[in-house]
Amino acid sequence: MTDQIYRRSWVDRIQQIAEGFPLAPLGLYVVLAVVILFILHGSQWVSGNTEKFLFTLPLTWTAAWTPFMLAMIHILDRVARQSLTQFCPASGLEAEDYERVEYRLITMQSRPVILTQLAGTVIFLGTIWVAPTYSGLVNVNPISDAIVYLIFWFNIGMLLVSMYHHTRQLEMVSNLHQEAASIDIFDTAPIFAFSRLSFWAAVFTVFMILPSIFIYQITEENIIFAVPSIVGMGFATLVFFLPLYSLNKRLVNEKSAMLGQVRQRIRDTIHELNQDMDQGDLSHIETQHAQLALLVLEQEYLEKLRTWPWPHGTFARLLGLIALPVLLFILQLLIQRIFPP
Questions:
Q1: Are the C-beta atoms of residues 53 and 45 closer than 8 Å to each other?
Q2: Confidence of residue 313 (pLDDT cuts 50, 70, 90)
Q3: Is-contact 244 314, C-beta < 8 A?
Q4: Phi-psi category of 233—alpha, beta or left, where left has phi over 0 and alpha has psi -120 to 50?
Q5: Which pLDDT tens digit goes with each residue over 10-35?
Q6: Which of 18, 23, 105, 176 has the smallest number of Cβ neighbours within 10 A?
Q7: Helix 314-338 vs helix 195-209: angle between axes, to the nearest 10 degrees?
Q8: 8 A C-beta contact, residue 61 and residue 176
Q9: How far apart are CA 222 and CA 239, in angstroms?
Q10: Does residue 285 sit within a domain?
Q11: Nearest Cα residue to 198 out of 306, 63, 318
């Protein structure tokens, strides 16, 4: 049985609960975000740090961070299952092997997730050491500050868990591409199957990290808070590209082999044509000319075959998604320098 391969993580157990949630799967994460939102803001209202019933954007994003990442992982697991189904004809997997691969693709092990979550403590302590006020959210009130720090610590851990999720999942995609029994360069459905997963993993990575730059008001004085976001932009690009690179190499090799065969036939046809011309035998020239024309057309067609395993325009959209916010952030810093507050 696939459920006995290894013990599933607490993240996957939450997914299982979400699937049976009455307000649709993603409804659980919305409810969780609202509960954390009121706990976080309520502690600020009671302590007098903010006006009662005033919701601020930094606190709201801090409260929504973990539920958003849990929902993101849930969505990506659904996309991964659909992508595996689409890739199945090229994989050569038997039914039992398919179930095992599917389980491993969408289910994280319990212990690595817990250890990854705890590893966030190091980053948490380092961030607090650099900026004890956590961008002004900590106001020297023991209760409200403890709640802010606790949620912030959990958010950092969830950031690492999500990166672990993307890394292990897309590493499996790369292995599936390498081990696939039959990759046909003319059959684009299996070839493009996992590009949707890698694209959305990269997009969610951007939306997971980027808002912090603008919400927490990153300036030249606390520019260090922008470093994780900048690193995240590079990570998002790798998340998209690396899992598909092994398949790209296979397609390049297949295309090169096919072009080599066609060019050899063109060479043979031209050699045969030249021999007949030297001997004055032009009886087959029309047939040879037609063969040569068809081979040239075949070569031109093969040269245009796509070896990047994603639909046209996908990578350009991702680069635009990454570049635009970075440019806006640079513009924000320039405006702050020209028009200081």
A1: yes
A2: confident
A3: no
A4: alpha
A5: 999 999 999 888 777 788 999 999 99
A6: 23
A7: 10
A8: no
A9: 28
A10: no
A11: 318
18 closest CA partner among 71, 69, 79: 71
- Look-up: residue for tokens 């040239």? 296
Tokens 């990454």 belong to which residue? 322
Cβ contacts of 227 within 8 Å, gap of 6 or more: none
Q: Residue 8: phi, psi to the nearest 5?
A: -75, 155
Amino acid at 89: P
* Token pair belonging to 115: 């250890």
Cβ(58)–Cβ(158) under 8 Å? Answer: no
pLDDT in tens, 159-206: 889 889 988 998 999 999 988 888 889 988 999 999 999 999 988 888
Q: Which two tokens stand for residue 271?
A: 């050699």
Distance CA 22, CA 88 (A): 32
Identify whether 94 is part of a domain.
yes
The CA distance from 54 to 63, in Å, is: 14
pLDDT tens column, 195-232? 999 999 988 888 777 766 666 655 445 555 556 666 66
Q: Does 26 map to a domain?
A: yes
CA distance 167 to 74: 15
Q: What letters, b where the CB count within 10 A reaches 16 and e where it falls short, cover 108-128?
A: bbbeebeebbeebeeebeebe
- Alpha carbons within 13 angstroms on the beta-carbon side of residue 275 total 8
Task: Tell me the backbone φ, ψ of residue 281, rounded to 5 degrees.
Answer: -100, 105
- Find tokens 């899992």 and name the residue: 243
User: HSE-up of 43 (CA within 13 Å, CB side)?
Assistant: 23
Domain containing 103 equals: 2-254+308-338
8: β partners: 109
Is residue 68 domain-resident?
yes
